[in-house]
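Q: aldehyde dehydrogenase (NAD(+)), please. Structure only.
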Amino acid sequence: MGVKVDITTYPGNIINVKPVPTATTGRSVNPSTGKALFEVPVATQQDVDTAVKYARDAVKTWSRTAFSERANLLLAFADAIEENHEDMEKLLVQEQGKPLSLAETEFDMTLIWLRAFATMDIKDEVLGENDERIVYQTFPPPGVFCGIVPWNWPVLLGMGKLGPALITGNTLIIKPSPFTPYCDLKLGEIGMSIFPPGVFQVLSGGDDLGLMLTEHPDIDKISFTGSILTGKKVMKSCAKTLKRVTLELRAALNFLNSGQICMLVKRFYVHEKIYDQFRDEMVEFTKTIKTGDGFELGITVGPIQNSMQYDKVKDMYSEIGKCSWKTAFEGGVKEATNGFFITPAIIDNPPEDSRIVTEEPFGPIVPLLKWSNEDDAIKRANNSKTGLGASAWCKDLKRGERIARQLSAGSVLVNSHFDVAPNVPFGGHKWSGIGSEWGTTGLKSYCNSRSLWVWKNAM
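A: Structure for aldehyde dehydrogenase (NAD(+)):
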């Protein structure tokens, strides 16, 4: 296809298939070095109004475009991303900090997701038919969507919103995190040569931009992935215009991406009979984990992504001494470096009410806890206001499934963790979210529901 982007230039927001510069610009930093990266645009209210107007104009035609044509354009977009994947993966390491191998995985998954969404046609359903009439449930697109994307997986989670929105006939405005705006802006640049004007746009900015989007009367739905605290603010803001909203909120592999994945293992409950062996083997494995710059070979744990999160994780590590937690593996903050590096820590059977058990650190620190009674272990595992992912590990598959069916989380796995797929719904229970994304269920959340009664007898 020949779509090539320069990852060192950032001319502006992507509005109506054009780069639009802004008077004010910002910069994020490379979390491995603490050095500023390239300039990025800072969108204004006028930019928002302009992008929304184009998106609303475009949806009139895009919503009536045949599914096959929308699918072909989505596939062409995936092909263009693949053409640029090596440069884009390096850019992702620079802005996010994750190891290059994990950046490659994120782009691989993104291509799989986009190509899968291109096959997922939400068809009308027949609810009932007799000699006199037929009743359908149809799924028309609401119109203009906005995807607010977090900094931990900015590419997969951004394109995980784009695919469902566009394939169901909506137009989409992406707001990347101000900590990781670069790849999403370049994806918008790639999309300029593929999608019709107004169908896919990208606006970069800070928290005030989020408020402009969530309160805008001509945006029909917000899909937000991020923290519980911010999710509550998004929901409150959307309520002003009765805007629909999907929230995928953090809840708690344990050290992957420096612990900065919402569905990572937050705490381990290990039966007392195998606790010591499990702890010791986990410690031996953790000793092999290398922490460093994402471009170094063999790195598993990169830097914490930004200074705000770095301070939060450091505060959690400071609790080890304050609360006299026993450490199976000490870990710690690498203060001598310019980047935001923290090495993994394992806390050995801390009190159930300690912060490391009740809070999500979103960093490479994890507690191990003993249990002896199955019902008590399930109760303790469910004793949380969050519930995104959980897993049960057991040689007895029937027992493992029985336990799994009692865990209060949106995704529960037996003998695995953090399995996701584009055709499987993803969402949380309790404070971990509202609604779900991906799969048929997720795609329908990008649609309205319409009951269509057709009477066969002419008037």
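A: Brief note, in case it's useful. Residues 252-263 have pLDDT under 50 and may be disordered.
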